């Protein structure tokens, strides 16, 4: 019976009742993605930036100019001139700028994806904390009830003058401590629920069960890293920055070509007038100076920055993976050994039979509870480390 009780407690660390809570977490994360105020605002910002970028590739406004010269010494009538013209950059500039604008859109979208990932990871960690506190509360409620039973028994023995006031006070303090622990956990649960509500745009979320499935394997470090390189928004953002900086070079090179203008012109005096076509071209001597060099220098920086950040991310990822493997190994050792410890129920039965004094019972109980709490804490840390390693899958 003893082992069945212990393994029933341990079993809740890995299995779900009725259905996997991982699907519930995914559903809540999708809900938060839809309702999160920051992400909604970022989408509006992206739309505004896309329209603004498109506006930079418009043609200049047409120009209309006119002259009427009635003054001065003249042998003919008053001089009149009208001209309407349209100026534009060299045609290849518009194609280059359009590609650059598309790359800027990709930058915005990758930045959004990165921020979305951070929001969802924060929400997932809050959900893991909430599940941990709910599981902890279930355990502490049972401990509180057991402490109350011990206190009632000590009270009965004290009334029969079979134990002293010291044992009664110790039992009462133990019961009061368990009451405080439950109240503190209730407070922690409300804090996590409030955080999730804020992330969900002020909409309350459905409280999840404390049972969360912990996958036994998450893959090798090599395979995980390959997945991150292809799907992590941080790398997509770095790639988008490189692409945009390269297209900026092409754009600046295109802008070294002359601008042009075409239009219609009318000139006339009394009894005589002329009309025809107008054409003009700019000489690109000063405006594009150093801009190509600046764009090339920025591209070199973006390439170097990609290498530096990639190395930094890999070091952080490797450290997290090593910590996860070590924690998983220790957790499995705890899970294997904890079955040999006396359960609280058996300890209580032994105490009722008089096999333990109150102090011996309390010390044995604390030892078992510390081991159980340590295992529960390790399980939560495993979930958090796993969420960090699988962040790119959000």
Short description:
It contains 10 helices and 4 strands, in the order αααββααααββααα.
Which characteristics define this entry?
394 residues; alpha+beta; Outer membrane efflux proteins (OEP); 4-stranded antiparallel beta sheet
Rounded mean pLDDT is: 83
CATH homologous superfamily classification: Outer membrane efflux proteins (OEP)
| Widest sheet, order of strands | 1-2-3-4
Query: The biggest beta sheet, please?
Result: 4 strands, antiparallel
The level 1 CATH classification is Mainly Alpha
Radius of gyration, rounded? 37 Å
What's the SSE pattern?
A: HHHEEHHHHEEHHH
Low-confidence stretches: 1-20
Shape: elongated
Sheet-strand content, in percent, reads 5-15%
CATH architecture assignment name: Up-down Bundle
Number of strands: 4
Describe the structure.
The chain has helices at 2-11, 21-35, 37-55, 91-159, 165-199, 221-231, 233-254, 291-337, 344-352, 358-389, and strands spanning 63-69, 79-88, 260-269, 272-281. Residues 1-20 have low confidence and may be disordered. It starts with a helix and ends in a 5-residue tail after the last helix. The chain is elongated and about 140 Å long. The longest helix has 69 residues, at 91-159. It has one domain (2-60, 90-260, 287-393): Outer membrane efflux proteins (OEP). It is of the alpha+beta class and 394 residues long. Strands 1-2-3-4 form a 4-stranded antiparallel sheet, with no helix packed on it.
Write the layout of secondary structure elements.
Layout: H1 2-11, H2 21-35, H3 37-55, E1 63-69, E2 79-88, H4 91-159, H5 165-199, H6 221-231, H7 233-254, E3 260-269, E4 272-281, H8 291-337, H9 344-352, H10 358-389
Antiparallel strand pairs: 1-2, 2-3, 3-4
Helix pairs in contact: 2-4, 3-4, 4-5, 4-7, 4-10, 7-8, 8-10, 9-10
